[in-house]
Design a protein that fits this description.
The protein is built from 9 helices and 14 strands. By secondary structure, it is of the alpha+beta class. The strands form 3 sheets. It has a 6-stranded mixed sheet with strand order 10-9-14-13-12-11.
């Protein structure tokens, strides 16, 4: 459908009053007729002592209505309608303004201008984010606003990151969480579309669990990117079993001198040892970037809200990269204290497509 925008204004009236209409076809319709038909037409009204101010007010009202309409029609993560959909935000205007202010602060390198938008803890995370690499907010095509309890989530803000000592460049979609006072209290790097869809569309598990898994995995990858050792310490249980792997180049021998002789070295850690290893890695790596892809979720048979997720992971840092399959055993019994009991990694699937999972440890 062709979209037509028309402005109706009266320049001989002070203050100026302006209405902006967005619609398909409006021939023969009065202003009141347009206003009364909300299903077909969107309209905005503004006033001020100049045409510019009136136009700004009318446009802001119109943008707010467009955003509400888009959210009302959108299906978050393909979850569908009814009980499987999260509540959309009706008034997105204040959140859109905050995102615009944030964009201006980041793209002008005036990060202090963004401080009033955040809580104290949220601003600390923001400072870590912009220190991750040279950052810039790109032109956003579609922002999603949904309610999560008292919080409002703004999803899919595209940001680019580049680094002083490396040619790598990443484009990430950032998620902002606003508290009930409309302050940003946390942020995260979003999962990719495939990883999100696999979790969201797995209707064998309740929506609350799928939503918690998405948020948990987003916070997990963000913690490694921002080197948040304190957060990682909180999410691993004190008795966690942690198995890591690293691919090494093996020296060629007489029989395999022309082959790619990679070997995998596995290490088993307890929580204290693993955190010490991470602390050293965070100190000398300029950046760490985790990306997740296809995944599978299973629930533990031992009771409680304990779930295992097998997920394809790409790990890229300033001096090492690999890809493989991560397994996390996560306890969601306490939503305020989600805990990892087990973490394993393997470079590829087994001969029959097997990945470490609940079946190996339940």
């Amino acid at each position: 459908m062709n979209v037509v925008a028309r402005k109706m204004n009266f320049l001989n009236i002070i203050p100026v009053s302006l209405c902006v209409f967005l619609f398909g076809v409006c021939s023969g319709r009065s202003i009141q007729g347009v206003k009364s038909n909300a299903k077909t037409y969107l309209w905005g009204k503004g006033s001020g002592n100049s045409l510019k101010k009136a136009d700004h007010g009318a446009s802001a009202m119109l943008i707010s209505q467009i955003a509400v309409q888009a959210e009302n029609r959108a299906e978050l993560f393909g979850l569908g309608a009814g009980e499987d959909s999260l509540e959309p935000v009706k008034d997105t205007a204040p959140y859109l303004r905050a995102v615009e202010q944030l964009k201006n602060a980041i793209n002008s390198n005036r990060y202090d201008l963004a401080e009033p938008l955040f809580t104290e803890s949220g601003y600390a995370m923001f400072r870590q984010l912009v220190q991750y690499g040279r950052s810039k907010i790109l032109e956003e095509k579609e922002l999603k606003f949904v309610k999560n309890g008292d919080a409002v989530l703004c999803r899919s803000i595209p940001m680019s990151f580049s680094f002083k000592k490396n040619q790598k460049k990443f484009v990430e979609k950032v998620v902002l969480e606003f508290d009930k006072n409309r302050k940003i209290n946390s942020l995260a790097l979003a999962l990719g579309e495939k990883a999100t869809a696999d979790i969201a569309n797995n209707k064998a598990w309740p929506l609350t669990i799928r939503w918690m898994l998405i948020r948990f995995m987003e916070n997990y990858r963000t913690a490694y990117a921002l080197k948040r050792l304190d957060y990682i310490e909180k999410i691993f249980s004190d008795d966690a079993l942690i198995i890591t792997g690293i691919e090494l180049e093996a020296p060629p021998d007489e029989l395999n001198r022309f082959q790619n002789n990679k070997i995998v070295k596995y290490n088993k850690y307890n929580k204290t040892e693993y955190l010490e290893k991470l602390k050293k890695a965070f100190g000398y790596k300029e950046f760490i970037n985790l990306k997740f892809d296809e995944n599978n979720i299973r629930k533990s048979g031992k009771g409680g809200e304990v779930y295992g997720i097998q997920i394809k992971q790409s790990y890229v840092s300033s001096n090492y990269s690999d890809s493989g399959y991560l397994f996390l055993l996560i306890d969601f019994s306490d939503p305020e204290k989600q805990t990892i009991h087990l973490r394993t990694w393997q470079p590829k699937k087994g001969p029959n497509g097997e990945i470490y999972g609940i079946q190996d440890f339940d």
